[in-house]
Each structure stands twice: as C-alpha cells, then as structure tokens.
Description:
Elements: E1 11-14, E2 34-39, H1 42-46, H2 52-71, E3 75-79, H3 90-101, E4 105-109, H4 114-127, E5 131-134, H5 143-150, H6 158-169, E6 173-174, E7 177-178, H7 209-221, H8 238-256, H9 276-281, H10 286-298, H11 304-328, H12 356-368, H13 373-387, H14 391-401, H15 407-418, H16 435-441, H17 462-473, H18 475-478, H19 485-493, H20 496-515
Parallel strand pairs: 1-2, 1-4, 2-3, 4-5
Antiparallel strand pairs: 6-7
Helix pairs in contact: 2-7, 3-4, 6-11, 8-11, 10-11, 11-15, 12-13, 13-17, 14-15, 17-20
The structure holds flavin-adenine dinucleotide, ligand DLZ and iron/sulfur cluster.
Iron/sulfur cluster (SF4) binds next to α12, α16 and α17.
Amino acid sequence: xxxxxxxxxxxxxxxxxxxxxxxxxxxxxxxxxxxxxxxxxxxxxxxxxxxxxxxxxxxxxxxxxxxxxxxxxxxxxxxxxxxxxxxxxxxxxxxxxxxxxxxxxxxxxxxxxxxxxxxxxxxxxxxxxxxxxxxxxxxxxxxxxxxxxxxxxxxxxxxxxxxxxxxxxxxxxxxxxxxxxxxxxxxxxxxxxxxxxxxxxxxxxxxxxxxxxxxxxxxxxxxxxxxxxxxxxxxxxxxxxxxxxxxxxxxxxxxxxxxxxxxxxxxxxxxxxxxxxxxxxxxxxxxxxxxxxxxxxxxxxxxxxxxxxxxxxxxxxxxxxxxxxxxxxxxxxxxxxxxxxxxxxxxxxxxxxxxxxxxxxxxxxxxxxxxxxxxxxxxxxxxxxxxxxxxxxxxxxxxxxxxxxxxxxxxxxxxxxxxxxxxxxxxxxxxxxxxxxxxxxxxxxxxxxxxxxxxxxxxxxxxxxxxxxxxxxxxxxxxxxxxxxxxxxxxxxxxxxxxxxxxxxxxxxxxxxxxxxxxxxx
Length: 522
Ligand code: FAD
Ligand code: DLZ
Ligand code: SF4
C-alpha cells in the first residue's frame, strides 16, 4: 500500500475538467484497480483569463462529478485549487500523483487542445509510467474519419461533411433521402423575432453549498478576471444539464429554426438550447441530443426546419470545427490572411460603448459568459473583423469570455469562420455586414444613438462606413472571390466623392479607437 492506501499496480486515470461524462479513459475499468485523479489547477484557469463564471462552472461541475464517482465506488484523488500541495498544472499534479501512488499505468483521454495534448505526450517520459492517450470518442467523427472525408478534397465544405455525417449516422434520413425532402432548411430559418411573453426561459439552478464554496474561491482567487458571478445559475451536474435539455426539447425546439438568427434587446436566449457548456464539458451526449431532436420531428412535436437546423449545428458544425482544428495543426492559430493587427478595443472587456448592438452582446457576455451564435458572429465578430482586429487577439477574447469555449471549437469558429484568418477554409467568404443586417435581424438599432440608415455624418452607424471601407481596402485579397462580386459591384457604383466620404468616416471611427485608453483587462 502507498501513503493514501492505493495498491501499487493500479491504473491512474486523469479526468480533465471537460471530461465529466462517459469517457474512454474510464470506460470498462474496474473501480477496485483504478485511481481517478481530478485537479483544479491555476495554469488551466489563467493561460487565458477565463471569465469567472466559466471557472466556477467547471470547478463546481468537477467537484460534483468527483462526488458522484465516489458514491459509485470509485477512488478519487481530488486536488482542490487551494490545496497547499497543489503543483498548479496538469503536469505537476500528474508527476506528483505518480510519485506518491506508483501506478502501473497512466490513462488519459486526449485533451481538447494542442497545448494539453503536448503535455499529455510528455508524461510518460516525465513520470516513467507507461501512459495511454486514448481517443476522445464522445465525438461522432474521429480524427481518422475526418481525414478519410477530407483527404483529396479541394474544398472542405461543411455542407458536404454534414451530409456525409447524416448518412453515416442515419440521422434524419428516409432511406437514402433526407427527411423532409431537403438537406438544408436554412432559408426558412432567418426570421426576425418579435417580443413574446410565452418565450421559453432556460431553467435556473441556484447554487448549492458546493457551488457557493466555489463561487467564493473564484471571486477571491480570480478577482482580476473578466465577468460577473452575480446570478450564477448554471447546471453543474449531468442530471440538471439533462433537465435543461428536456426543457429545451419541450419548449424551445419547435421555434428554434425560425428564429435561429434573430436578436432581441434583453432577450438573451430566444429559442436557443443553451446547452453548449454542458455538451463541451461532457455532461451531455451529442448523439443523444440529435436523436431526441429527430424523435421530436418524427412524433410531430417539432417542424423539420427546427430539427434539421438543430441537428446541423451539432452533427455538422460542431464536429466539422473539431475536425478542422485537429487537421490544421497547432500553427492554425497563427494564420492571418487579411493581415489584421489592430488590438481589440477595450470596451470588449467592459461593454462600455454607445453602439447598442455591441453594448448588448458584450454586456450579456460579461454577465452570463454566454451569447448566442449570431451575437458572436454578426455583432462582436463582425465588428472585430471590420476594424481589422488581430485574429489572435480576437481568438483570445472568445476563448476567455465564453463558458463553452475550448480551443478545439472556439478557434476554428473565431479565426476561421468569424475572422477569415484562414483565407476561406472554413467560410467561403468573410462574415461582414453593414448595420442593415443587424437592423433586419434585431431590434437593437431602434434604441441606438446611431442612425442605421446613414453612412456618413456624426450619427451614422459605424458598421456602415466600416463595412465599405473593409470592402475597399481588401480588394486585392477578396476581389476575385465570386461570393464577394455583389459588394464590389455596389462599391464601384458609388461616386468618387461618396467613396472618399465613406472611407474618411471609417478612418475617423478607427482613429477614435486608437485614441481610446487601453482597457485594464487586455
Ligand atoms: P444552439 O444555438 O442551441 O445550438 C445547438 C448546439 O449546436 C450548441 O449547443 C453547440 O453545441 C452546437 N453549435 C452551434 N453552432 C456551432 C458552431 N458554429 N460550432 C460548434 N458547435 C456549434 N461554440 C462552442 O461550443 N464553443 C465556443 O467556444 C464557440 N465559440 C464561437 C466563437 C465564434 C466567433 C462563433 C461565431 C461561434 C462560436 N461557437 C462556439 C458556436 C455557437 O455560437 C455556440 O455553440 C452557441 O452559441 C452555443 O449556444 P447554444 O447551446 O444555445 O446553441
Ligand atoms: C478550462 C479549465 C479550467 C478553467 N480549469 C481546469 C482545471 O482546473 N482542471 C481541469 O482539469 N480542467 C480545467 N479546465 C479545462 C481544461 O482547460 C481542458 O480540459 C483543456 O483545455 C482540454 O480541453
Ligand atoms: Fe449597431 Fe449600428 Fe444598429 Fe447601432 S445602429 S445598434 S451601431 S448596427
């Protein structure tokens, strides 16, 4: 026996904070011959300054998972952040555990970032303990499956990937044909939303004693991190995450599709599922969610445009983004196709801006660590791209500020889809728009001090001049992109005087950013 009663010869299984469900490293093992290790470590909380609520969510979910495993007979060595012996990193804690417990083997499920995988690959040498790094089979498309799909293709179009995944998993298929007669119902899913007293609200899970302890710890240790802990009511167990999933399928899925791209002031969730933090931490299973959505369609409880839209996000986008992340390698993060180098404005950390759309999306994000897709893509992402923000800085912001952010999903979404940093691998054209799009899909402009219909002048919506300035200054890089032909044709129809005025208006706006004091958080 070792100091803490572990028989030598056990397998030590490290469960990472986003591996809180059925994972390959633990599956099929005998609790009597397994020592589970879970660690709260400063390095994971500070390699970017994660939103306080993200840290609290994970620490509390980890503590609840450890307790549940113990109840089921597993031995769990749980190292809390404030444990005086805590070495502060995965590697330090693995080395310490191996030295103290002398396991026969170490087993881990592959981490979700190149950074963590590199650590995992060093552990066998550092500890002298044979180490198995097992595939993360919670995903529906493994690395080799993605390679088999991608190899030899000129374009890695998500739509093609998604159809292959539908066929492979038999989801929403009527024989060989797509259910409802079409693969894609996106064109039905772009309706704005009206205020609706019956709009579903996600469930609220008031903090229990475990979560309250964590909230106090995080408030003290990470006081300089962005975001608020007030009103923290995220689920922190698989059971409660499951209850939120039930709630979504019962109340929100039917209208998910119609209003997928809509935004309303003060309405943070609309008909979205608000399940991404749970899915990404392993509290929910993606295939199960897709099947439940399909069952709702088959039973007539939800229309095809909603169900197909929902399945597309999980089976399509989520798996595709992960495939791209691992395929493109650790240097993907350095890509900067548009050669953008501007720092992200300080108001991304405070929400203090007079642009109503940005104030709303950022304010909500700071309060809750969540915003929905169109807020991320067409408000904060769109603006960052229009001003020419450094894609790496934008990536860092998204990684730290969202409760569901892990590099495997956040980086291709931010650098690829949102900032066009990869030059068109993930998106076929940059997601940029003038204020007109935001006005069509939201009610933000109605309360904004700017005039969404004006391109120039003191009250003109900044998105308008910035949009045309972006189009004009990137002609060399984007002018031959067929999907950009229309904006270039429109720009060319502007008179020279109008072009000069618009570009001067954009320059004035960018100058105000340059003149603004640095935010403390950056
Ligand atoms: P819903 O709208 O209800 O969608 C259902 C599910 O589909 C989500 O729970 C999510 O698991 C999945 N999904 C939807 N869109 C995407 C997508 N583009 N990529 C991957 N999965 C998707 N999602 C993350 O999970 N983590 C991130 O770090 C993240 N960063 C993003 C950064 C940017 C710039 C953008 C534009 C999008 C990002 N997304 C990210 C995708 C998307 O915004 C979130 O998944 C979604 O807002 C989560 O809220 P929800 O659960 O209510 O989603
Ligand atoms: C995000 C995060 C944070 C803030 N803290 C921890 C932690 O203390 N312990 C842990 O095991 N995991 C944490 N995580 C999640 C990891 O960063 C995540 O597992 C890796 O990024 C791999 O996806
Ligand atoms: Fe945003 Fe422009 Fe609309 Fe104001 S007017 S909310 S800045 S898009």
